[in-house]
Each structure stands twice: as structure tokens, then as C-alpha cells.
Design a protein that fits this description.
Structural class: mainly beta
Radius of gyration: 28 Å
Distance between the termini: 49 Å
Number of strands: 8
Number of helices: 1
Strand content: over 45%
Length: 191
């Protein structure tokens, strides 16, 4: 009513189309459609393309293969963001601002090794560790990557405080402070 207070609010819903990378990895790098082959000249014969001497070719070691799996019902990653702020002139040429910023991201694609090494607990410290050399859970196959649907969520909450003072000859002073926290249900995983 006194013309010295301003209240602002906003909301946005943002969609990020699922990229082709998970499908590319799952389809293009899957055995037997994708294999790396190194052939060198050897006493068995000279390497010539397109025909290779079969004695130079060997089947890949399953422990060196990376297998990919993907769910067929991946939803688009989504982020909802919102903000509310109040600004008040507390003295001539001095404005105080307080803002709340929040967001929630969901349906984010998550990749994890489905054949990770088993961890053990150190009896002396109670801490988990992976003994070296690490062994896969299933020693008969290599790394297995899964792209998991609807498993990763992230949240952000922030409080921003500010004081701005306009002075003579175009000078101004500003103080700003931000407190925030960000958390999710799979911190530290490969995204």
C-alpha cells in the first residue's frame, strides 16, 4: 500500500527429452553386434582385408566385455522450479530482499554397474572397502551397465538475502548471502 514493497513469484516446469545416448550404448555396444578386434602381422600370414586369416582372430574375453541393458519405458527427465521473493525499501535508497528458490528434478536417467565387486567390512574400523584386485560379483562376465527408469530424484532449496544501497554519483553497495542445500537419492552415482 505504501509503494515500497514488491512481491514476486514464479514457477516453471521443464522437460528434457531423453537423449539417444542410452539407446546408442545399449544397441551399438552389445555383443555380438559390436566387438573390438586387433589384428597384427604375424608368422601365420599377412593381414589383408576384407579377408582375414582365421588363425589371427580369436573370440573376445567375456571379462573384457561391457554389457548394456535398458528399459523400454524411459520417461522424459523433468524439472520443476519455483521462486518467491519479497523486496522492501527500508530507508531512502536502501532495499532489502529475501528470496526462496526451490526445484525438484525427477525421471532422470541413472547408470550403474550391475556386476559390481562385492564390498567387505574391515573388522578393525567397521568401514566398507573393496579388496584389491577387485572381483566382479559374477566372475564369468564383465561389467554390466543398466540404465534405470525413474530412479534418480534431486531437490534444491535455497534462501537468498540481500541489502543494496544506492549512494551518490552512481555508486552502490550490495551485501548478499545465500544458504542452500541440494540432495538426491543417488548422490555420487554416474548420471
Amino acid at each position: 500500500s505504501n509503494g515500497k514493497t514488491s512481491i514476486r513469484a514464479g514457477f516453471g516446469l521443464y522437460f528434457d527429452h531423453a537423449t539417444g545416448a542410452p539407446w546408442n550404448r545399449a544397441i551399438n555396444r552389445a555383443f555380438p553386434f559390436h566387438q573390438f578386434l586387433t589384428v597384427r602381422n604375424s608368422p601365420a600370414g599377412v593381414v589383408s582385408f576384407p579377408r582375414l586369416n582365421p588363425s589371427l582372430v580369436s573370440s573376445p574375453d567375456p571379462l573384457n566385455l561391457v554389457n548394456y541393458s535398458i528399459r523400454g519405458t524411459i520417461k522424459d527427465p523433468t524439472k520443476a522450479g519455483w521462486t518467491v521473493s519479497i523486496q522492501q525499501e527500508v530507508a531512502p535508497n536502501t532495499v532489502v530482499t529475501a528470496s526462496y528458490i526451490g526445484s525438484h528434478s525427477y525421471h532422470s536417467t541413472l547408470a550403474t554397474n550391475g556386476n559390481a565387486a562385492r564390498s567387505q567390512v574391515d573388522p578393525a574400523t567397521g568401514r566398507k572397502f573393496v579388496p584389491q584386485p577387485a572381483r566382479f560379483r559374477n566372475p564369468n562376465i564383465g561389467q554390466v551397465n543398466f540404465f534405470i527408469l525413474n530412479e534418480w530424484n534431486a531437490f534444491y532449496n535455497g534462501l537468498q538475502l540481500g541489502v543494496m544501497r544506492r549512494m551518490a554519483r552512481g555508486l552502490q553497495a550490495q551485501f548478499s548471502y545465500t544458504w542452500s542445500q541440494s540432495y538426491g537419492n543417488y548422490e555420487g552415482w554416474v548420471l
